[in-house]
What we know:
Blueprint lengths: L2 H24 L4 H29 L6 H39 L1
Amino acid sequence: MSRDQLIGALLMAGSIAGILIYGYLLITPYSYIVLQLTAFVAVAGVLGILAWIGYTLATTPPPKPIEEIEKEIEEELKKLEAEMKKEEEEGKKEEAKEEGSEGAS
């Protein structure tokens, strides 16, 4: 049995045991306390998740506007185009030098 299967089997067995214990506690004199604890845990879980979402929204910086991103992309494109033109001009100059040196020999 692989490790994942073992963990899965343990989770399943633990869950079934939890269901049985919870069901038993509901028919004992402690049922009112069990229901109160269940309600508290459920409400606390939901409100805790909402608090976490609120905290995340409050502490995360807002995203850049699309216009600003587009402007940055255009600037990068212009830089790349300028570099490409520069490389093409240098390549043409080198070709001209090579042709000039071949004609002289």
